[in-house]
Amino acid sequence: MSSAGYSLEPIPQNGRIYGFWDHFAIWFGADMGIAVFWAGSLLTPGLSLSDAILATIIGLAVGNLLMGLIGLMGARTGVPTMVLARGSLGIRGSYLPSLLNYLQLIGWTSIMIIVAAKAMEEVISIVFGVKGFYILWVIIYGLIVTLWTLAGPEKWKPLQKAALILLLMLSVWLAYVTLTKFNFWMLLAKPGSGELTFWVGLDLVIAMPVSWLPLVADYTRFSKTVKHSFWGLYFGHFLGCGLCYILGALTNVAAKLPDPISIIAIYGLGVPAMLIILFSTTTTAFLDIYSAAVSFKNVFTKANVKKQITIVGVIGTIIAIFFPPEQYEWFLLLIGGAFTSLAAIMLSDYFIIKRYYDPQGLLKVDERYWYSYGVNLIAVIIWLVGFIFYLLIAATTLLGVSIPLIEVVAFSLGSSAPTFILVFVLYTVLMRCIKVGST
User: Fold this and answer.
1) pTM of the predicted model, to two decimals?
2) CATH code of 103's domain
3) What is the Cα–Cα distance from 146 to 151, expressed in whole angstroms?
């Protein structure tokens, strides 16, 4: 990795090495995986398969737009997402979301390793009748994703393109096997149980691209052009994530299996199943590891990114061995709500309030981004209000807590969209009315 890949400094033009297909490959692989099959399975049978497909298309169209806009900010400025957060929250104000991002990405790294290891254990059991190697698979996957991450942006180009070609071939095969084993048109006409409203289903889809918002600019900062980053990201993620959501919904309504990989293994196609697990896990988890290291450096600027990559990979692997995800997955989902609010503030600040960031100014004590003692208090308060609002909605939907008015919002609209809209409007109005920083 070049020194630019280890630094918070704006990527110079000669370091802008990613074109359309590089971004397409990264973001196709980001959500082409088992965890997203499972996310798709949550849509059915609560929704009909036809409604699940519609929710997937609309949800990704909206969610990917938000991803693309954060990515555009990274492509224009050449700095990572958490450095961009300095523009709205203040240089010191960005430290808290950076640390939250660091913690959640370690957690998601471990979950990706766990998901891959469990899936591989199941496939090996079906194909060869052998069990008991779960910890070995955890260690192998932890090592693979850490080494992949350490390869750096230059090496990711050929690695991701090779993975893209293999994943495209495997995903076509996956879709073919799944669709030929079931009567798709009959399943499409089957009504849902009604346990899930369309709007909550839509929120479940939007939540997937929203979960990537704190990471996006870490990779689009390497883009040759703004158009390459926006459209490569948009279409790559739309295709990879959309395919997984739809196939997950299909296999759940057809066979009550949360992912089609088990179906492939059952029908004696164990090698394709294992390859899908290997490549999909690697192309997702390396993003978590690298962005965790970069987020850490935003707070501790003297930190060595390469060492942090190794630390995150090791910690994620250890957690995967000793701690079942049921103990902390809910916590990660709640932390994720912090970044719905943060994205709303960042997009409002960049595209409406300021309309420009000086990349070098974001990296020093600059009056435009220093606010009061390094913190934009208005932004931080609104960010916390949005986070609390998200938590109240989550408490209603996940824990069954009855909260007047919030309950209506929760079961009719979900959590991500209402939180984003509330924070975006609040921040825009208050920053227009109260002159804080540069406008």
Assistant:
1) 0.88
2) 1.10.4160.10
3) 9
